Amino acid sequence: MKIAITGTTGMLGQALCKAFARHSIYPLSSGDADVTSLPTVRQVFSDLKPDWIIHSAAFTGVDEAESKPLEAYRVNALGTRNVALAAFENKSELLYYSTDYVFDGRQDRPYREWDPTNPVNEYGRSKLAGEFFVRSLCPLHLIVRTSWLFGPGGSHFVQKVLERAKKEEHLNVVNDQRGSPTFSTDLAYMTLCLIEGGKRGTYHVTNSGDCTWYEFACKIAALKGIPVKVNPIDGSACSAPALRPAYSVLDNYLLKLEGIPVLRPWQNALAAFLGD
Ligand SMILES: NC(=O)c1ccc[n+]([C@@H]2O[C@H](COP(=O)([O-])OP(=O)(O)OC[C@H]3O[C@@H](n4cnc5c(N)ncnc54)[C@H](OP(=O)(O)O)[C@@H]3O)[C@@H](O)[C@H]2O)c1
């Protein structure tokens, strides 16, 4: 299949290029296709006419989105509208990535795909707006919600913990936000399975299990044998501009309903990433 991928300079985009190597892939950086420009997006996709567009490009700065909401919405909402429109006009299938941050975190069980959304920050609201455009403009779509990504070539929590642990003896890490860490390589592999399997609809795809950021940091330090002291703190003690849901564990329920094996436990995925 002919597959165009947006956001290929990003963490997930790089993993997707590897996972889809057996297909004809067309990696698109923001220089190749600035998704905020409708004429550009229309031109690029009418020239390529891909079977699939995998739209992984996004404004991903959760805290930055609070002070720059227009920039976040321009990429995540308007940019996704543009990609969805071009997909419809060129009869391309569309896959869009969304986030656990579309939920408010007040639920006491993992979120299923059809649970009510209610984002608590601008990033989550802008990604949810992207979902609306995909659903309304491309009825036969895939939306994949994921969470807490880590992997090669990205700026993420694992890398930040390792960098801080080199310089600091104590790390204070939030222990009242719970989610599921997800390895970009595993997510890209599941994306391949969903597309090749002809699936449609909204899927939650994360590594199995859940933890707090504190528990995640402890595991990172333990796996690397770093003797850093990790202290649990409350999110309210941080001055992060964006609110985060206290509980954003995604139940991979549609995968389970279809009998598709869910991704390995996050601890195993983390060990694989750190062992490379
Ligand atoms: N990271 C997470 O924890 C997480 C969690 C849940 C969901 N997600 C979703 O997963 C997807 C991939 O995330 P990621 O962490 O891999 O992202 P990332 O590493 O931050 O990369 C973002 C990509 O988007 C591109 N981009 C930004 N603005 C653009 C524009 N105007 N036009 C075209 N491309 C543009 C960037 O290109 P340049 O480098 O050229 O600017 C970059 O390639 C996103 O949809 C994100 O919302 C991520």
State the gist of this model.
The protein has a domain of 193 residues: Rossmann fold (3-Layer(aba) Sandwich). Helices cover 41% and strands 20% of the residues. The site of NADP nicotinamide-adenine-dinucleotide phosphate (NAP) has 28 residues, from helix 1, helix 4 and strand 4.
Key features of this structure:
276 residues, alpha/beta, Rossmann fold, six-stranded parallel sheet, two-stranded parallel ribbon, 41% helix, binds NADP nicotinamide-adenine-dinucleotide phosphate
Description:
The chain is α/β, with parallel strands linked by helices and 276 residues long. Helix 2 (38-48) packs parallel to helix 4 and helix 6 packs across helix 8. It has a domain at 2-154 and 181-207 and 250-262: NAD(P)-binding Rossmann-like Domain (Rossmann fold, 3-Layer(aba) Sandwich). The protein contains ten helices and 14 strands. The protein is globular, with a radius of gyration of 18 Å. The structure holds NADP nicotinamide-adenine-dinucleotide phosphate (NAP). NADP nicotinamide-adenine-dinucleotide phosphate binds at residues 6-7, 9-13, 29-30, 33-36, 56-60, 75, 79, 97, 99, 127, 146-149, 154.
